[in-house]
Amino acid sequence: MSDEGFLMNLPSHIIVEILSSLPALTAINCKIVCKKWLSLISTPEFAKLHLSKSNPGLGVFQHEPGGGEVCRLFEFDHHDIHSDPVIKFEVSVSLGISHGVTGHVGSINGLVCLRNFGHESDTLYICNPITREYVDLPLLDVPFENPSQVTYGFGLSTVSGKYKVVRIFHEGVSDPTTGAWLSISRSDCHVYTLGTNSWRDIGDVPFGYSCRSVGPYFNGNLHWVIQDLEGSELISCFDVEKESFQPFPPPFPGERHKRSLHSLGVVAGCLCLCDNTSDSEIVMWVMKEYGVKKSWIREFIISKVPDFAGPACEMVYALKIFENGDILLTLEDYCLFFYRNQSKTLQKVEAGPNYTIQTMLYIQSFVSVKDFVLKENVRVF
């Protein structure tokens, strides 16, 4: 019997075990080998097994000349980023978006929530770049105009297994001279559960406004750095299952800052806060025991001298800590860079053309949008 024939005649559970260990794009190509393999790869059980073996990579959204965003998905090796993207596609063309700027809200288990920024309202999408399936969420009939702020998060209920998009809206009165907010006249929160085709109003938001923050998802919760009207900074936490807000201990006890340059992320299995308010260094706080205030430690202090020193006006996000101690970070909307642990220096990363960027951790998966949404509402690009 030939090697090919031997492989074809293996028991189904062994074939599934082998195919689930392959990179996603390789496994997709295996669908065309035979009907049996197509059937095995198309099941939710295969998607779950493949997901359990997949390693996170990097998603980069870049705004290019002439308009439109290109999404590039990269893989990591043990200490760096692969130079060529695994996947590249033009977001606006693939999703049929005719105007505006598109960025990400978050990514969980290979599903990506995208936001197309509009003048009066936003359009949101959930897609899987591997299966090329996507669905557009219904418009929320809550138009906004300046001065107002809209903040999003994309989360997963660890109990029900439901994917949810959270939208927080603040409308305020601002000082006509300085632009500072004087009062908040309205604040509300809406939740969209994937598959329901409708938004639900869950009431007022019990905290001050947030400026440029997308809420990272971790441990069943979404998290935002928030400010009150006096400029004090705190962290707000949203329980995705219970759909309720709760206070969360920050490393800084209500400090006031002229510049709000604190960002949240998840690195090495811990919640992380990156502080870029200093002109000369980046401070990374890591919460070693989730939810315990005393477990916040200043784990990394990264010098920005000489190449990145100077007055800071953008947030820095920590994306990944590698085994050798290198740290991948992004300077909001501008560039990716590595902190090289051995030399204690910052090094810019080339990840395609140097235009406005957004980044996220992304894991290749076969999780299908059709498992949550009526099949007739799912599109393929």
How would you describe the overall organization of this protein?
- The structure is a single chain.
- This protein is mostly beta strands and 381 residues long.
- It folds into two domains: 1-53, no CATH class; 54-380, Kelch-type beta propeller (Neuraminidase), CATH 2.120.10.80.
- 11% of the residues lie in helices and 42% in strands.
- The protein contains six helices and 25 strands.
- The strands form six sheets. It has a five-stranded antiparallel β-sheet with strand order 4-5-6-7-25.
- Strand 17 (270-275) and strand 18 (281-287) form a beta hairpin.
- The chain is globular, with a radius of gyration of 22 Å.
- The mean pLDDT is 87.
**Count, helices:** 6
Write down the overall mean pLDDT.
Answer: 87
Strand content: 35-45%
The major sheet is characterized as: 5 strands, antiparallel
- Count of individual beta strands: 25
Q: Tell me the name of the CATH homologous superfamily of the largest domain.
A: Kelch-type beta propeller
**CATH topological fold name of the largest domain:** Neuraminidase
Lateral strand order in the biggest sheet:
4-5-6-7-25
Helix share of residues?
A: 10-25%
Report the span from N to C terminus: 40 Å
Coarse shape: globular
Overall radius of gyration: 22 Å
Residue stretches low in confidence (pLDDT < 50, at least 5 long) are none
Protein name: F-box domain-containing protein
